[in-house]
Amino acid sequence: MVNETREIVKEFVYCLIRGGKMPPILYYLPPSPPCRAIMMLAKMLDMEFDMKVVNILEGEQLKPDFVELNPQHCLPTVDDDGLVLWESRAILAYLVSAYAKDDKLYPKDIRVRALVDQRLQFDLGTLYARMGDYFFGTMFMGAPLDETKKAKLLEALRWFEAMFKKREFTASDHFTIADLSLTVTISQMEAFGIDLGPYPKIRAWFKKCKEELEPYGYEEINQSGADALKGMLESKMQNK
Length: 240
Hints:
Elements lengths: L1 H16 L7 E4 L4 H13 L4 E4 L10 H6 L7 E4 L2 E4 L1 H12 L10 H32 L5 H16 L14 H16 L7 H14 L4 H21 L2
Parallel strand pairs: 1-2
Antiparallel strand pairs: 1-3, 3-4
Helix pairs in contact: 2-4, 2-7, 2-9, 5-6, 5-7, 5-9, 7-8, 7-9
């Protein structure tokens, strides 16, 4: 009862701060890599969400009210006063644009922003996608690991390594949302057992990003989620 009262008071105060608007709603599942990126960004922006867990392992994303909200029924999904967004990288860009005090995480300089956007798309369409192709069939359904898919994943890592020729971060001389999204992907790969030894530039960048994110829940949000998915993968592999 006390905790519920505190939450009500917190939401009321937040509502007053935002001029009467309620905090955005985040539909999420804690171990999900894209959800972890959104949760860490919220801490970086010092913003509150109304957090609603949707357990995809129990099919809760297929409930009619959620499908009505998001026909693609994927996570994370954000509802900010009627603006409904899914795809975590689009959500990252929106939240920084809407709530950040400055543009450091998503620079307005069109050339820098173009690089941030490209790196986000590389993560979505190539690096994270190839990680999922290799591991997720095993993690969710117990399918055998396909070594041809591992080769494609390692190819993507070589491409990523090559992106650090001119800078220490992925798109700028400082940390941006591209680094946030890619850090989550790389951390999940490492948890799954991918050896980062052959990629010294990625390892140096990854160390910097972990230090950047340490005050914003890296261990309790990101690493714990990566370890949870690692446990799911190992369980499926042991039961094969």
